[in-house]
Design goal:
seven-stranded mixed sheet, 7 strands, 31% helix, 21% strand, globular
């Protein structure tokens, strides 16, 4: 099966160094950290190049990644984490292996969303936390990504988008919620002001997070 992330892996984090990208990822990190519970072990499903694994304060961090190209970059940039090649729908771990399982904007690219969520819950220890972030389907950012999908731009050609209601239909009501990035993709500085304006206008956030 073709790896849609292969041409993107080396430069995947470059956007975070742009002014808009730095603002967006900063807001997403703030929202994510507010939802993550304490624990000894974290599994990130779809860990990409290890951006979050380098930043999250868990003694044991494991990254599962389906893209061989992203995995190679992740191992090089985040050697402190354990790395495993695998799919979200078939996690190669025993039941009850982790305190926290994180799926951050990865459900957009799995083949079977329900199976991926079932597997994430299976490998959680009793009382553990499942944290899921999705690119909100009704946001201006998802509209941009759909346009890129129509043009066949990787990796968006293979993407699907979920709204918070879709996640809650699959998982039930979350224990806690978070959201980030209300500004539009074409916003100009100052970004905090643009973000507040997007919120006032009723935009859905680019990122929706829930903890179950």
């Amino acid at each position: 099966m073709e790896d849609p992330f292969a041409p993107l892996a080396e430069a995947y984090e470059a956007w975070y160094e742009t002014p808009l990208g730095a603002y967006v990822i900063g807001e997403e990190e703030r929202a994510l950290r507010a939802l993550l519970p304490p624990g000894e072990s974290l599994l990130e499903v779809g860990a990409g190049t290890g951006w979050w694994l380098r930043r999250l304060p868990y003694p044991r961090r494991v990254g599962l990644e389906a893209s061989p190209a992203m995995l190679r970059v992740g191992r090089a940039r985040t050697p402190e984490a354990e790395w495993v090649l695998g799919r979200a729908e078939a996690l190669p771990f025993p039941e009850g292996s982790f305190d926290v399982v994180l799926l951050f904007t990865v459900l957009e690219f799995v083949e079977d969303v329900e199976r991926a969520l079932e597997e994430a819950r299976r490998v959680l220890r009793p009382g553990g936390a499942l944290v899921v972030g999705v690119l909100e389907a009704l946001s201006p950012w998802a509209a941009l990504y759909r346009r890129l999908s129509e043009r066949g731009v990787p990796p968006w050609a293979q993407a699907r988008f979920l709204a918070r209601e879709d996640l809650q239909a699959l998982l039930g009501p979350p224990v806690a919620e978070g959201e980030a990035v209300f500004l539009a993709p074409e916003a100009h500085p100052p970004f905090p002001e643009a973000d507040r304006a997007g919120r006032r206008a009723g935009n859905r956030p680019a990122l929706y997070l829930g903890r179950w």
